[in-house]
Write a structure and sequence with these properties.
Blueprint: E1 4-5, E2 37-38, E3 55-58, E4 66-68, E5 78-80, E6 83-85, E7 93-99, E8 102-109, E9 124-128, E10 132-136, E11 161-162, E12 170-178, E13 181-182, E14 188-190, E15 193-198, E16 201-208, E17 228-232, E18 240-250
Parallel strand pairs: 1-18, 2-11
Antiparallel strand pairs: 3-18, 4-7, 5-6, 6-18, 7-17, 8-12, 8-18, 9-10, 9-17, 12-15, 13-14, 15-16
């Protein structure tokens, strides 16, 4: 497929928010950590169709691009009305195709009416390379620790702002992800980095992951392949996803 150089990454006319980018260190999942400012994103826009060079991972009709995280099992989520929905207890799903650096677009909706509080309300996640999580959560008038709300690099970095919409409506993530690189001895040459727009609002700009996403403790890196599946999490909530597509990026080593 045709690839895209990093210098030609999609230029979006979106709100850039930089306040709070520099924050003091806090314990993982600390309830004392200040919450990001709540803002109202712009009016919802129609679902964004994939560009001509995109790899469409979900077109609203079938899960053929996906499989269960458990080896050899088909994806167990529900498909209807143009979206796929987490089937609680069926497990995470991952793409059959592996990716390195990518541009990712996906749209998601929280259950309405909402159920539960904090991390028990509409919890899911987007795991880049099956390891680096952008949190999906109902963060509309739902308090939780700052590094666990919607748009967070889970347990690592809160979003710059809370740009969540009310549950039931469609939200969007536009993500530019640059894979990590490792030395032959396993050392980190360059960490995984990510830029994230939530509902058209910049919530991370070229932010580094501190390691593989883990819960309740400091993250560390483990060496892995240059290309791995994209994974969507089953955390027990009936979160919906639609219009999922990626574009492979050529990184500065000339590799996708």
């Amino acid at each position: 497929m045709k690839t895209l150089s990093l210098g030609a990454i999609l230029c979006l006319s979106l709100v850039a928010v930089t306040a709070g980018a520099q924050q003091a260190p806090w314990p993982v999942n600390s309830l004392e950590r200040p919450r990001p400012q709540v803002i109202r994103p712009g009016a919802p826009v129609p679902s964004i169709p994939p560009p001509s060079d995109a790899i469409v991972l979900f077109d609203g009709t079938k899960l053929s691009a996906w499989e269960s995280e458990e080896e050899g099992k088909p994806a167990g989520w529900t498909v209807r009305n143009g979206y796929m929905e987490v089937k609680p207890g069926s497990g995470a799903i991952q793409t059959r195709q592996a990716f390195g650096s990518i541009q990712l677009h996906l749209e998601w909706a929280e259950p309405a009416p909402p159920h539960g509080e904090g991390q028990h309300r509409g919890n899911s996640g987007v795991f880049l390379m099956s390891r680096y999580e952008i949190q999906v959560l109902d963060s509309w008038r739902n308090d939780t620790y700052a590094d666990g709300q919607a748009g967070a690099l889970y347990a690592q970095r809160p979003p710059l702002v809370n740009a969540s919409r009310p549950p039931g409506g469609w939200q969007s993530y536009d993500i530019v992800f640059i894979r990590p690189r490792f030395a032959p001895d396993g050392g980190v040459v360059s960490p995984a980095r990510v830029t994230v727009f939530h509902n058209g609002v910049l919530v991370h700009h070229d932010e580094a992951f501190t390691g593989r996403t883990v819960h309740g403790r400091e993250a560390t890196y483990e060496t892995h392949l240059d290309r791995l599946p994209l994974l969507l999490q089953d955390h027990g909530s009936r979160v919906r996803f639609r219009n999922v597509w990626v574009r492979e990026l050529v990184d500065d080593a000339g590799e996708g």
